[in-house]
Write a structure and sequence with these properties.
By secondary structure, the chain is α/β, with parallel strands linked by helices. About 30% of the residues lie in helices and about 15% in strands. Helix 1 packs across helix 2 and helix 1 packs parallel to helix 8. Keywords: Glutamine amidotransferase, Hydrolase, Lyase, Stress response.
Length: about 230
């Protein structure tokens, strides 16, 4: 049986460039849909956050503008079944990624606030990449890659082909233009070979060796199904 570690943001606000705090957390679809697909494949899932803090669901991710009604019902129903796991997550520092067949980072704006500079998560990502074992990040989840560092201070993901929420997609949100920085820009500046789909908000994934990334919330299902196909 495969085991998957979900590394989830613990942030409940995102600091915008004007200094205001925007309520946020993890994006419902990006956690629930892959978790349901992996569980349906018979995989065991463990949820971990920085410091073992209970993660916050971004309420916007459950609003009527966040997806099709059927998908939102699916998300709500599955999140209801894993409330015990969400109430008592493990701490990232207490888990060994080598115990898992897959490490998966869902998004939401939360990772922009905490995982983008979390040293414990960064060390986990650095070690995971070096191991050559599967690693997947979705939407804003790749913000966590920015905290990874080799011993010499270089960025281990330089030259890797990745996708993540694009600048255009970020600006489509009502508050996205207030972002202190954009993930697409930061990944490119760090040395990633960033790629995106031809149209915004359309599912798009990239696979580079054992690194899997998805561009936006709508990519959740495609990314999870690809992982199940590849790891089964």
């Amino acid at each position: 049986m495969n085991r998957v570690l979900f590394v989830v943001t613990a942030a409940d606000t995102w600091t915008l460039k004007d200094g205001s705090k925007h309520p946020t957390g993890f994006w419902g679809e990006e956690l629930a849909v892959p978790h349901r697909i992996f569980s349906g494949a018979g995989w065991e899932a463990v949820i971990a956050t920085p410091g073992g803090k209970r993660p916050t669901l971004d309420r916007i991710s459950m609003g009527r503008t966040a997806g099709l009604p059927g998908t939102l019902r699916e998300v709500a129903d599955h999140l209801a079944t894993i409330q015990g796991e969400l109430r008592s997550p493990a701490s990232i520092g207490d888990v060994d990624p080598d115990d898992f067949d897959l490490v998966f980072y869902p998004g939401g704006h939360g990772p922009m606030e905490d995982l983008s500079h979390d040293e414990v998560s960064g060390a986990l990502l650095t070690a995971r990449l070096a191991s050559g074992r599967p690693l997947a990040l979705l939407c804003h989840g790749p913000a966590a890659l920015l905290a990874a560092r080799n011993d010499d201070g270089s960025w281990p993901f330089a030259g890797h082909r990745v996708t993540a929420l694009s600048n255009v997609e970020e600006k489509l949100t009502g508050f996205g233009r207030k972002a202190p920085w954009y993930l697409e820009d930061r990944l490119r500046e760090s040395g990633a070979d960033y790629a995106k789909g031809a149209l915004p908000l359309v599912p798009h994934i990239e696979v580079d060796r054992a690194l899997y990334t998805g561009q936006n919330p709508g990519s959740s299902r495609r990314l999870a199904n690809r992982l199940v196909a590849d790891l089964s």
